[in-house]
Amino acid sequence: MASRVSKDGRITIDKEIRGQLSIHTGDEVIQRVEGGRLLVDVLPPRHNRSLAGTLRDKVTRWPEDDSWEALRNAAWDGPDAEP
């Protein structure tokens, strides 16, 4: 597929290629020159939903404080007992 560079340096990725590579509006890309060629890598989209708190109702015990040492020790104490 041939395309032209616009006056502000933009190029258009053909719709068929965007579909094959699952490239969507707003995706981030990294451009680099390698061996005299332009390479464009499309970064995977960021996860847009938070999973924080989804298992909160399953937690039955909490460490004394939230320092790494306390959290690590709590994890080594073993799994929560089955309800």
Question: What can you see in these coordinates?
Answer:
It contains two helices and two strands. It is of the alpha+beta class. A two-stranded antiparallel sheet has the order 1-2. The termini are far apart.
Query: How many E-type strands?
Result: 2
| Tally of alpha and pi helices | 2
SSE run: HEEH
Structural class: alpha+beta
Strand content: 5-15%
Rg is 24 Å
Low-confidence stretches are: none
Distance from first to last alpha carbon:
61 Å
Shape: elongated
**Mean pLDDT over the full residue set:** 84
Largest sheet composition? 2 strands, antiparallel
Strand order, biggest sheet?
1-2
Question: Helix and strand layout, with pairings?
Answer:
Blueprint: H1 15-21, E1 29-34, E2 37-42, H2 68-76
Antiparallel strand pairs: 1-2
Short note summarizing the structure:
This protein has helices spanning 15-21, 68-76, and strands at residues 29-34, 37-42.
Task: Offer a few descriptive terms.
83 residues; elongated; alpha+beta; two-stranded antiparallel ribbon
